[in-house]
Amino acid sequence: MIGKTFDELTVGDTAEFAKTISESDVYSYAGITGDLNPAHVNEAYAEKTFFKTRIAHGMLVGGLISTVIGTQLPGPGTIYMKQSLSFLAPVKIGDTITARVTVLEKLPEKGRIRLKTTCINKEGAVVIDGEALVSPPRPAKA
Predict the structure, then answer these.
(1) Annotated domain spans of the chain
(2) What is the pLDDT averaged over residues 72-84?
(3) DSSP string, 97-135
(4) What pLDDT was estimated at residue 141?
(5) How confident is the model at residue 142 (pLDDT cuts 50, 70, 90)?
């Protein structure tokens, strides 16, 4: 199975993936990456910060965008080439985040797609805003 090819994509196409960020997600990400910043893994420390509690790693949350790109839009076979992210608000353990990807532009000269990428919390606030450049899967050869 492959995702949508360049010709199958249309400006405005959108896909989403939602996930509740768990304590296990934060600890697993910290262990995998080695990012043991106490703002993420130490509640006693985090209580003294601006946020008053532990927050999820920004890149953990941003990784949800990759889920949408790699599984839905364009989907399997897509090559992720570039991503810009602005981290606009914290994500706390227990927050449900929806990653949304929207086709902004088709770049026919190289068969690439420019995408709007956002992560939104359950209150509707954008917590991450950005853009991605991808190479969608090529059509299957007969």
Answers:
(1) 6-21+58-135
(2) 97
(3) EEEEEEEEEEETTTTEEEEEEEEEETTS-EEEEEEEEEE
(4) 76
(5) low
